[in-house]
Every structure is written in C-alpha cells, then in structure tokens.
Specification:
It is a single chain. The chain is mainly beta. It has a single domain, classed as Lipocalin (Beta Barrel). The protein is 7% helix and 54% strand. The protein has one helix and nine strands. Strands 1, 2, 3, 4, 5, 6, 7, 8 and 9 form a nine-stranded antiparallel beta sheet that branches. A hairpin with a 2-residue loop joins strand 7 and strand 8. The longest helix is centred in the middle third of the chain and has 9 residues. The chain is globular and about 40 Å long. The N terminus is likely disordered.
C-alpha cells in the first residue's frame, strides 16, 4: 500500500535584523527571539521592520491613537501589518513599565499565503 507524501509548506524565514541599518532616531522598539537575536523593530510611531527571507520589509500600522491607548491601558499590543504579500500579526502583553520604557513579551506570526512562521519574542520600547 502506498501513501502519498504531503509537502508541508515552509513558513517565511525570519532573519536577524540589524537595527543599525534602519537609522532609528528617538523612540523605538526592538524585539528578540528566544536566541536573543533582534527580529523586529519599530519607530514607535507607526513603522515596523522585519527581515524575511533575507530582505528587510517595512510595514506601517493603521491603528488609531485611541486604539493604541486602549490597548496600552489593558497592557496589550495587537496589530496586523501587511506589505509585499506578507501579513505580520503582533500579539504582545505588557510585562513592565518604567518612566519612558515599556517591556513586552508574546509572539509574532509571519504569513505568506498558507505558510506561517510563529516566533516567541520579548523586548520593549523606549523614548
């Protein structure tokens, strides 16, 4: 009896992101995977960067200030970002706040078509 082999679609490869290439000034956020490599960055003003399959991809959030404040009040950060055939879902929970910093942990999900990569992340933002 023969069984057909089903090929699993490999998810998008999320690579280490060198934030020095982004020329971030002022408030910014960085998030690391479990091996402590930076995999996502944000300017905390609406732009995000992630390196997928060897290429840096820029995303822009479309959350309103009111939505951002509501989530902040509940110590959550949820966002769905889209660019270049990719969808990135950010699902973070606040784990600490001090003066001009905020810490988060959770996961990001990178989707291209039916292929998905999920990554546990931790990190935060500072002014």
């Amino acid at each position: 009896m023969a069984f057909p082999l089903l090929a699993a679609a490999a998810g998008p490869q999320v690579n280490r992101l060198d934030t020095g290439l982004l020329h971030l000034n002022g408030g910014q956020c960085t998030f690391e995977n479990q091996t402590r490599q930076t995999v996502m960055a944000s300017d905390w003003a609406g732009k995000f960067w992630i390196k997928v399959d060897g290429r840096i991809v820029e995303f822009v959030t479309h959350r309103s200030d009111e939505e951002m404040q509501r989530q902040s009040d509940h110590k959550r950060w949820r966002d769905t970002l889209q660019a270049r055939g990719l969808t990135v879902t950010v699902d973070l929970k606040g784990s600490g706040v001090r003066n001009d910093t905020a810490a988060y942990q959770g996961r990001i999900e990178v989707r291209r078509g039916d292929a998905v990569t999920r990554i546990a992340v931790s990190g935060g933002c500072s002014a």
